[in-house]
Write a structure and sequence with these properties.
This protein has 3 helices and no strands. With 70 residues, the protein is mainly α.
Length: 70
């Protein structure tokens, strides 16, 4: 299978590049409707927050908080 020959780090990099490309394309598409930039930024943050919390919780960070920053 193709995923067996590609290292996990490369798959994550490709997935993140796809995510950033989709985000940039959606911002450009929405920008043509006259929506203020700060509303677009807020919408991106609201949409990405649950997935970030899910990934942090999956890695063992309690509620996304770093308990020992040192």
């Amino acid at each position: 299978m193709l995923t067996d020959s590609i290292p996990a780090a490369v798959r994550y990099m490709l997935l993140s590049a796809l995510g950033f490309a989709l985000m940039a394309a959606s911002v450009k598409a929405v920008g043509g409707y006259g929506i203020p930039v700060m509303e677009i930024v807020a919408a991106r943050a609201i949409i990405s927050w649950p997935s970030a919390m899910w990934m942090l919780n999956a890695k063992g960070f309690p509620s996304g908080a770093i308990t020992n920053p040192c």
